[in-house]
Automatic annotation (TrEMBL):
Record key words, sorted: DNA-binding, Phosphoprotein, Transcription, Transcription regulation, Two-component regulatory system
Domain OmpR/PhoB-type intervals: 128-227
The Response regulatory domain, residue ranges: 3-117
InterPro entries: CheY-like_superfamily (IPR011006), OmpR/PhoB-type_DNA-bd (IPR001867), Sig_transdc_resp-reg_receiver (IPR001789), WalR-like (IPR039420), WH-like_DNA-bd_sf (IPR036388)
Gene3D superfamilies named among the record's database cross-references: 3.40.50.2300, 6.10.250.690, Winged helix-like DNA-binding domain superfamily/Winged helix DNA-binding domain
Organism: Metabacillus flavus
Pfam families referenced in this protein's UniProt entry, alphabetically: Response_reg (PF00072), Trans_reg_C (PF00486)
Protein's name in the database: Response regulator transcription factor
Amino acid sequence: MQKILLVDDEPAILDVCRRYLEREGYRVDSAVNGFEAVEQWKRGRPDLIVLDLMMPEKDGWTAAEEIRMGDEDVPIIMLTALGQERDRLLGLTLGADDYLTKPFSPRELVLRVKNMLRRTSKYKNEEKQSVTIGSISIDLSTRQVKSGGKIIDMTAKEFDMLWLLASHPSQVFSRSQLLEKVWGYDFSGDGNTVNVHVRRLREKLELNPAEPQYIKTVWGIGYKLEQPL
């Protein structure tokens, strides 16, 4: 499950943004000032940080600068009530990847988080060409899947879904996320399409599809693939 660090000194904003992000399957940690933000980043190493600028004790610019000194890659989306160009430029100069001016729609924040993480994941996965989990090995360049050394036939979408899950082990994907990433935005199908493909993957890869060891159902959210015990 991807982790978001949400930093703002306004409890109402923290609460509503947390609910929207958690609804999409993200784990959300929070902080109310720059000091807490830096400490939370050190402890949790989130996948993305949503960082308010105007906060007491230590502002977002200072926190972003300290985080960037230790991590050049974690995406940062800055929130501010300041709309002036110089403030936006300063935030971007200090390492912010995107900017959102208050007041903002929580739905827009969720979309920006998704887009940012998608770009980051794509960049990270460009170098990853193969994954092995348990007895399953997957080669992206040849689009070949083996289980116990035996080649398993896959349709294009079955392979795409398996690669997505296996290249993000233990990360929970909602059905809507799987539809979006595997079939694309324009696909008109629903969650049943995902369920059918998961069932077929289990039939091909699991010793007992009724009690899957690899592709696990996360009730009320979606699916994840993890190392069997």
